[in-house]
Amino acid sequence: MRSYSPDLTPPWKKGTPAPEVPAELDLVVEEVTTGFCGAVLRCEAGTVTLEDRFGKQRVFPLAARGFLLEGKVVTLVRPPAPAPSRPARTASGSVAVPGARARVARAGRIYVEGRHDAELVEKVWGDDLRIEGVVVEYLSGIDDLPAIVADFAPGPDARLGVLVDHLVPGSKESRIAAAVTGADVLVAGHPYIDVWEAVKPASVGIGSWPVVPRGEDWKTGVCRALGWPPNTGAAWQRILSGVRTYRDLEPELLGRVEELIDFVTAPTPPLP
């Protein structure tokens, strides 16, 4: 008769596959040959360092079937390297500066036509403007812009940028802009009747901005055409809530605001 010899090979030395477990920080395992039990302190190329509850540290090779995890044989492997994280972005798409403090306000300013314009600029470019120290103020229209510019007295170290709605050739806005534009004043505008229209319709949940008959108040006409309550303040909050980043705005507005920020933050030219 053939004699039977029991297999006395320890389970950690048998050739059967063992699950691979990443040697994550603080994972508690036991090294099979020494019985040393500890938490993973670090894992480097080919080795793992364990620390027991008394603070003693030992370095072991990352051998196949070399450790016990909750009583089961495993093969520790080096954890995958974390994917490089992309830098956080502000709503305007600029690289965020965590913990950055607001800069002391510059002498230069950006003026916009109304409160809605100011709120939209703040929501998308607010972080950038605080870092640059640029204050945005609204004018309640631009009919008095020449007098406002004269009172501001712009100069090389106090430039003035103005964002205008419906700045198209032949319009009232274009004539006013031409009267005040100079070396230290930049008037830039978008073609839309109101800044509402500079928000992409899809971001508001509509197919398109409606055409309002000439002679009718544009904002009131928009609310009527879209079936919204005749409350333009509530309508604007509904529109503004759909704006999260620069992607929710039309390029014609994006480019003009960026242009104005660059203009008022440009370095002061040296004295001759």
UniProtKB/TrEMBL annotation:
Span of domain DUF3097: 20-79, 109-265
Pfam families: DUF3097_C, DUF3097_N
UniProt-listed InterPro entries: DUF3097_C (IPR021447), DUF3097_N (IPR053883)
Protein name: DUF3097 domain-containing protein
